């Protein structure tokens, strides 16, 4: 009886701390889940003995366009050049195929086809149900508001986005920005028959902002770049 | 809602598979492929009501057609599954996918899988979310029924809740300890 009581007391010094330790880890995980991946990435960069490769599963078919004429000051009067579909390597899901930039707001990001978490962690993702530059239809691209698309908070009407692909360089001028709910289908028209670059990211940009049901949409119309035919 | 999404995708896939090909040939839209796109856009007429395929699936089909060719034989075989699907929907008066019975659902899924097999595309359905995906024989995702607009920011709600809860718990402990004079020597 006495021995049993001693053993029980002894066990209490083991399982009680264990329970609280596990509970503590669970609480920390829940609390820091949004930034665990970022933390691990940063830590591995500091602690790793070699440069970590976060793009093991993502390919790149992007080739810096050579001898592509690009206006320093877009005038919208550049003659339309045509590129055959035969000359285009159509990107598959998960492939890096273009680069997007906007000098005034300091935005620079790789564009991947597809938009799952593994992609938006290393670049900006194009919705699979939209089209590539030059096709003459909607180009819908999403990115994180805390990383690659953070500069969008400073975007203004008239800003020019440059999209470089292996088959041509495209310029798009921002015509408007608007905030919609994430599930509001009035924010975009997948059936539209004119080319428009639509960028979206979570809104507002501050870290603590509730459930983030809103998105900032930036609409930019094509002003130059070859047409696919 | 999830069931409706799932069934919309199945109908889309039945038509979408017309656009797929096992042949990685020259990237261009042929007249046959354009006909397929037109068929996709036309939708299905059930009791005078046109049930349209969502534009996101038609766009994915169009993008796929731009880089793949489809042979006439494959088109004909897939068209037969498409026609079966249409006939089934008309015969069973399926105008609202969310009201389909399990038996109807199984039939439509079966037709979609058969059509996809013609062009070596494997369909997977997430039973939790109802999201359908099409994977080609190279392992590439060629069809995705996921939401158009994704989550693109950190959700700190759980963090805030846990932090506030811990603060409240610590505060309570201090109050209780003070009342019980734990800190007094």
Descriptive account of the structure:
The complex is a heterodimer of chains A (229) and B (185). Chain A has 2 domains: 52 residues, no CATH class; 170 residues, Beta Barrel (Sortase, Chain: A), CATH 2.40.260.10. In chain A, the strands form 2 sheets. Chain A has an 8-stranded mixed beta barrel with strand order 3-4-5-6-9-10-8-7. Chain A has a two-stranded parallel ribbon with strand order 2-11. With 229 residues, chain A is of the alpha/beta class. In chain B, strand 4 and strand 5 form a beta hairpin. In chain B, helix 1 packs parallel to helix 3, helix 1 packs parallel to helix 5 and helix 2 runs antiparallel to helix 3. The longest helix of chain B has 23 residues. Classes of the chains: A alpha/beta (229), B mainly alpha (185). At the A-B interface, helix 1, strand 6 and strand 9 of A face helix 3, strand 5 and helix 6 of B.
What's this entry about, in short?
The complex is a heterodimer of chains A (about 230) and B (about 180). Chain A is built from 2 helices and 11 strands. Chain A is an alpha/beta fold and about 230 residues long.
Key features of this structure:
heterodimer, A: 229 residues, two-stranded parallel ribbon, 2 helices, B: 185 residues, mainly alpha, 2 domains, three-stranded antiparallel beta sheet, 54% helix, 10% strand, elongated
The CATH architecture name of the largest domain in chain A reads Beta Barrel
Beta-strand fraction estimate of chain A: 25-35%
Distance between the termini of chain A: 89 Å
> Which residues of chain B form runs of ≥5 with pLDDT under 50?
19-26
What's the topology here?
The complex is a heterodimer of chains A (229) and B (185).
Chain A: H1 2-47, E1 59-60, E2 82-83, E3 95-102, E4 107-113, H2 117-120, E5 124-126, E6 138-142, E7 160-165, E8 168-181, E9 196-203, E10 214-224, E11 227-228
Parallel strand pairs in A: 1-3, 2-11, 4-5, 6-9
Antiparallel strand pairs in A: 3-4, 3-7, 5-6, 7-8, 8-10, 9-10
Chain B: H1 2-16, H2 31-42, E1 44-46, E2 49-51, H3 55-67, H4 72-91, H5 102-118, E3 122-125, E4 132-135, E5 141-144, H6 157-179
Antiparallel strand pairs in B: 1-2, 3-4, 4-5
């Amino acid at each position: 009886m006495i021995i049993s009581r001693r053993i029980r007391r002894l066990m209490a010094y083991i399982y009680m701390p264990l329970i609280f330790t596990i509970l503590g880890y669970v609480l920390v995980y829940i609390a820091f889940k949004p930034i665990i991946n970022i933390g691990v990435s940063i830590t591995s960069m500091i602690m790793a003995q070699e440069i970590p490769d976060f793009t093991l599963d993502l390919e790149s078919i992007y080739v810096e366009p050579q001898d592509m004429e690009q206006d320093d000051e877009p005038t919208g009067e550049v003659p339309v050049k045509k590129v055959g579909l035969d000359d285009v390597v159509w990107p598959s899901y998960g492939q890096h195929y273009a680069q997007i930039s906007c000098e005034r707001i300091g935005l620079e990001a790789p564009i991947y086809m597809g938009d799952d978490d593994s992609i938006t962690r290393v670049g900006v993702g194009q919705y699979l149900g939209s089209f590539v530059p030059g096709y003459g239809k909607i180009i819908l691209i999403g990115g994180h508001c805390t990383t690659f698309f953070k500069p969008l908070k400073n975007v203004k009407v008239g800003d020019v986005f440059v999209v470089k692909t292996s088959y041509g360089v495209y310029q798009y001028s921002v015509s408007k920005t608007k905030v919609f709910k994430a599930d509001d289908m009035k924010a975009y028209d997948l059936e539209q028959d004119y080319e428009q670059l639509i960028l979206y990211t979570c809104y507002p940009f501050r870290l603590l902002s509730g459930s983030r049901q809103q998105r900032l949409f930036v609409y930019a119309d094509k002003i130059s770049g070859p047409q696919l035919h | 809602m999830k069931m409706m999404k799932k069934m919309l995708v199945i109908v889309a896939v039945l038509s979408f598979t017309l656009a797929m090909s096992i042949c990685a040939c020259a990237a261009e839209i042929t007249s046959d492929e354009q006909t397929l796109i037109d068929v996709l856009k036309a939708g299905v007429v059930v009791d005078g009501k046109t049930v349209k395929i969502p534009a996101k699936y038609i766009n994915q089909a169009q993008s796929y057609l731009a880089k793949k060719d489809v042979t006439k034989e494959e088109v004909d075989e897939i068209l037969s599954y498409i026609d079966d699907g249409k006939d089934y929907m008309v015969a069973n008066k399926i105008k609202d996918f969310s009201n389909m019975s399990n038996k109807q659902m199984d039939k439509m899924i079966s037709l979609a899988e058969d059509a996809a097999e013609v062009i070596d595309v494997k369909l997977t359905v997430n039973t939790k979310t109802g999201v359908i995906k099409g994977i080609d024989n190279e392992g590439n995702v060629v069809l995705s029924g996921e939401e158009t607009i994704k989550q693109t920011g950190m959700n700190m709600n759980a963090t805030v809740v846990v932090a506030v809860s811990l603060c409240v718990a610590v505060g309570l402990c201090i109050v209780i300890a003070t009342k019980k004079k734990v800190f007094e020597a």
